[in-house]
Fold:
Amino acid sequence: MRLSQLLLPECIAQDLHFTDKESVLQGIAKLAKKSNILKDVREQDILQGLRQREQLGSTGFGSRIAIPHCRLAGVPDFIVGIATTREGVDFDAIDGKEVHVFLFVVGPERETNEHLRILSAISQILHFPGIVDKLLSAKTPDALREVFLMHAPAEAEVKGGRDRRLVHLFVQSDDLFNELLNTVAGIGPVSMEVIESSNARRYLVRMPLFVGLWSDKDLGLSHAIIAVVEKAMTNELIRRIERVTGKLDKCNQVMVVVQEAFYAAGSLEV
Structure:
């Protein structure tokens, strides 16, 4: 599903007043509960899920931005929302700065791959220069939504059974691996796996944004990322990879192999 479909107008609010981290989580739970998708989920359960995630490590990833998120039993689909505050709140962000923009995600308990894709897509949008000031200047929830989505990259819905490609990404650089993993996840893979994935898990369990999605067990060495992506998004994925690596034909630490997928169905849990 497209990010534009997940970002619900009723879950967007600007210029809210927060006093501390707990008041932020309470406000987000209240805002998320406005979605009809969460009609059978108690507000207190949403709040508890957000609290538990923050106990694993702050989702404040710096630059005045945080992405609180949680996965809950009984949630049928993902919702995304935005809350902003001009005053700024101490959210234990990794750079120590107060947070002004909160993008939040609530989703199904078992949808790890889709959860990662959504977090990655949001993270990429929030890296645009000046995006925080643009969001804070929005005068209405509709304007806030429009500012956010205008920075969203081209999206393709996941469809089953045909027109897919198998992408192998081999990486010899630890410095590039984490950023490329985030890049592949952000394109919207139907399924993604890391072979002998100790390095991937080691990075992910320590990243404030993704902590809690993977365990740190069975650590071995590998830098091979495999993803099944929509055929129409293959060129876009290569372009995003080259934003990280530079031109691939001049890169000696990364190799990308793309194959036609004769048949691809189902998905993998991470």
Summary: Residues 105 and 144 are 16 Å apart (CA to CA). The two ends are 19 Å apart (CA to CA). Confidence is low (pLDDT under 50) at residues 156-161.
